[in-house]
Amino acid sequence: MRRTQTIFHAALACALAAIASSPARTAPCSFEPQGEGRVAAVMDARSFRLTDGREIRLAGVEPVASDLANRTAALSAIVAGQDVALHGEDDTPDRYGRQPAFVFLDGSGNSVQAMLLAQGEALASADIADKDCAAALIAAETLGRDAKRGTWAGSAVIKNAESPGDILAGNGRFMLVEGRVLSVRQAGATTYLNFGRNWTRDFAVTISRRVLPSLEAAGIAPKSLENRRIRVRGFIETRTGPRIDLVRAGQIELLGTN
Prior knowledge:
Blueprint: H1 2-20, E1 32-44, E2 47-50, E3 55-58, E4 61-62, H2 68-79, E5 83-88, E6 99-105, H3 112-118, E7 123-124, H4 131-146, E8 158-160, H5 164-168, E9 174-180, E10 183-187, E11 190-194, E12 204-208, H6 212-217, E13 229-239, E14 241-246, E15 252-256
Parallel strand pairs: 3-6, 8-9, 12-14
Antiparallel strand pairs: 1-2, 1-5, 2-3, 4-7, 5-6, 9-13, 10-11, 11-12, 13-14, 13-15
Helix pairs in contact: 1-4, 3-4
């Protein structure tokens, strides 16, 4: 078992090094410095407290909804008692008083977020506007998925758009949903990507008019998604059927034509 873990961590280090080799910056997500500190306690699957009392929330990732105790253990194994450097675009605390940041271990070029994602212990969020950083997080998540690590060892992480009841059970949670867009319709200032024919029951993605320019700038025209298989990530909301509100292009992954 120890030898297997050693081999995995060596492979993980190589893969993350490849992700970090970007011409734009030495390490993706290494934004402006926001200070340093030593980790005193891990609070949950994506937050911890420093010895100076600051509470830090990992930016750019969402915890896996199932088995949160194990996810907390995964973060503890990486950061407990470690000296860390904090980076970010904005250090304004969230409503719980936690400072969002990308976290790097002392002397490491890879973020803690990338490590968790590659181990299958977190999901890449949809709230990072920086394209290089967002792409690096998705790439790290893909490493974990392809290797079937952590949560990816099971088969229920990505929800099927044809099973709205399964999606609805996760109301208020961050989810990945995959399926074929049956139709694209506009109603007032909202565009709907419909994955079923019953709008009161089936899953849909909603896009407000103000988001359309950013989608088009990313080369995504909503109408072009009709009959395409896509994967979308975001928080599940209930408005008749289950919904994900699209706020940026990075929430969508194109998977194929049928």
